[in-house]
């Protein structure tokens, strides 16, 4: 069995290393050039560098290891401020990973390269100042600067005795404040001193910004699969999975969920794996600096989703289909235990590797291979056939190939209100995946309608592969959210029976048309 100690200790050791590495970390901080002066961009524990944010908000695999002392993270970036805007000027790459196809391999150089070497670009196509400098308009956050004096005269300047704090919004300076060492000292002795209200506000906001990222790296998110609760493995250089809804934009989350205040509360999702889909069940905010104790609050789910849930994509048992989630993830299932020293650790009994595309699980592998109760349905619902030993099926060759050749009923299952009522729901419900635009394809779904008119045991029976198979599963998740008001099939005596039924659609530009069933 595998034991996962609380991630704080692992991250702390990885960041600081040996005590003497801290001095090296300061020496190797990213550099900012501004008005002819050179500043060290102070690296706070856990808070991301400007370059790290680029990979976070664009959901890209990073060629660098950011969570390490700067000498070990493989790079040092140089930025420059021109016309109140922040530009990435160059990168000294000491160690990084290059990608060949889908494989990442270690490679090492010690040279200076332009942002183009790593294909780093601005969001705004006009943000490139020259062939060698890129506007860092992907970055919104705080930057703490320490002057690196070039001579004795500069070392005795006022700028050398304190720190300059910048609040950058979309790559441009929104706030700029120098806080001297004496001002910080007076604030430490008298935090309510009205003479330094502006300085106190900047320091507190900067501290909350740093604490937010510390909280993200300390805790893990919960995943429930078939009644088993697990922990989502924290991905290097990443925030919580819940933050991906905001494209990892911290300030968008602040604005939507904290009344615009800069809070250190980090959002953690509680996720539900049902069948082949991922759902966000609820969001809980974690606040606190101590790794062992922190406060939690439930975040209003509709507010978190910017009012987009509106009940249409809620599923039975709670949860919103997480169609914004794409990537490879690992879930560890086990139990929390406390060591003799009082340190919490997680004992892992099973690990699940998932590949998710727009909320649909396209592959799932367990190690060891299965849960003891794997015979239970993966989709944790109360649905079941009325008579498992006597199931009917509508007359359809492709359905028979998928589920078996069953006896046909006298009357097929039918949607209440006829086929026009069935089709009307899809007038206002289409696919949101941008890839489905300008595409035309067919989807066929199989499902069981039991003698009570309840539905379950869904599956895709159309033959599309690759991307078309992904689209078919996305259609399946959409169909599951519609009201399922079905009249059951009947046998020759008029008795309601369990019966397999099919649905089929033509999908054009994301719109489900020609909806039909047998």
Task: Write a compact overview of the structure shown.
This protein is of the alpha+beta class and 518 residues long. Strands 1, 14, 15, 16, 17, 18, 19, 20, 21 and 22 form a 10-stranded mixed beta sheet that branches. Strands 2, 3, 4, 5, 8, 9, 10, 11, 12 and 13 form a 10-stranded mixed beta sheet that branches. Strands 23, 25, 26, 28, 29 and 30 form a 6-stranded mixed beta sheet that branches.
What descriptive keywords fit this protein?
11 helices, ten-stranded mixed sheet, 36% strand, 518 residues, alpha+beta
Architecture overview:
This protein is of the alpha+beta class and 518 residues long. The protein folds into 3 domains: 2-188, no CATH class; 219-367, no CATH class; 391-517, no CATH class. Strands 1, 14, 15, 16, 17, 18, 19, 20, 21 and 22 form a 10-stranded mixed beta sheet that branches. β12 and β13 form a beta hairpin. The longest helix is centred in the middle third of the chain and has 22 residues, at 197-218. It is elongated, with a radius of gyration of 28 Å. 34% of the residues are buried.
Give the C-alpha Rg: 28 Å
> Overall 3D geometry?
elongated
Q: Taking all residues together, what is the mean pLDDT?
A: 80
Beta strand %: 35-45%
* Whole-number tally of structural domains: 3
Structural class estimated from helices and strands:
alpha+beta
* Proportion in helices: 10-25%
Low-pLDDT stretches are: 5-27, 372-381
Q: Termini separation (Å)?
A: 50 Å
Number of helices: 11
Main sheet: strands, sense, barrel:
10 strands, mixed
Number of strands: 30
């Amino acid at each position: 069995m595998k034991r996962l100690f609380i991630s704080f200790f692992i991250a702390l050791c990885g960041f600081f290393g040996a005590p003497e590495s801290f001095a090296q970390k300061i020496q190797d901080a990213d550099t900012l050039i501004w008005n002819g002066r050179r500043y060290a961009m102070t690296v706070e524990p856990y808070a991301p560098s400007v370059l790290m944010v680029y990979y976070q908000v664009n959901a890209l695999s990073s060629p660098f290891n950011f969570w390490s002392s700067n000498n070990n993270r493989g790079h040092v970036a140089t930025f420059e401020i021109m016309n109140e805007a922040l530009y990435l000027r160059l990168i000294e790459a000491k160690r990084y990973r290059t990608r060949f196809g889908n494989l990442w391999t270690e490679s090492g150089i010690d040279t200076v390269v332009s942002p183009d070497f790593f294909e780093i670009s601005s969001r705004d196509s006009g943000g490139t100042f020259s062939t060698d400098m890129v506007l860092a308009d992907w970055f919104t956050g705080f930057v703490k600067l320490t002057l690196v004096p070039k001579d004795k005269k500069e070392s005795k300047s006022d700028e050398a005795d304190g720190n300059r704090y910048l609040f950058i919004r979309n790559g441009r300076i929104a706030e700029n404040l120098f806080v001297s060492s004496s001002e910080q000292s007076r604030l430490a002795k008298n935090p309510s001193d009205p003479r330094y209200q502006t300085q106190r506000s900047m320091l507190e906001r900067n501290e909350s910004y740093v604490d937010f990222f510390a909280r993200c790296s300390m805790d893990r998110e919960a995943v429930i699969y078939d009644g088993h609760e697990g922990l989502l493995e924290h991905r290097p250089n990443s925030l919580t999975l819940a933050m991906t809804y905001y494209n990892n934009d911290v300030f968008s989350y602040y604005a939507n969920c904290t009344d615009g205040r800069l809070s250190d509360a980090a959002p953690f999702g509680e996720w539900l794996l049902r069948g082949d889909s991922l759902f966000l069940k609820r969001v809980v905010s974690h606040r606190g600096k101590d790794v062992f104790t922190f406060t939690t609050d439930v975040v209003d789910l509709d507010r978190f989703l910017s009012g987009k849930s509106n009940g249409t994509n809620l599923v039975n048992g709670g949860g919103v289909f997480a169609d914004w989630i794409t990537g490879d993830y690992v879930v560890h299932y086990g139990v929390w235990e406390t060591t003799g020293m009082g340190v919490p650790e997680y004992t892992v009994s099973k690990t699940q590797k998932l590949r998710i595309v727009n909320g649909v699980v396209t592959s799932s592998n367990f190690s060891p291979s299965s849960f003891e109760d794997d015979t239970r349905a993966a989709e944790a619902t109360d649905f079941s056939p009325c008579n498992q030993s006597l199931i009917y099926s509508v007359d359809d060759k492709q359905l028979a190939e998928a589920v078996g050749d069953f006896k046909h009923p006298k009357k097929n299952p039918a949607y209440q209100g006829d086929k026009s009522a069935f089709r009307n729901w899809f007038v206002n419900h289409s696919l949101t995946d941008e890839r489905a635009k300008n595409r035309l394809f067919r989807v066929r779904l199989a499902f069981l309608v039991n003698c009570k008119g309840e539905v379950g045991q869904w599956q895709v029976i159309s033959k599309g592969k690759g991307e078309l198979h992904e689209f078919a599963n996305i259609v399946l998740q959409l169909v599951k959210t519609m009201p399922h008001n079905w009249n059951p099939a009947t046998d020759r005596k008029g008795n309601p029976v369990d019966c397999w039924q099919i649905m089929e659609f033509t999908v054009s530009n994301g719109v489900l048309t020609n909806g039909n069933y047998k």
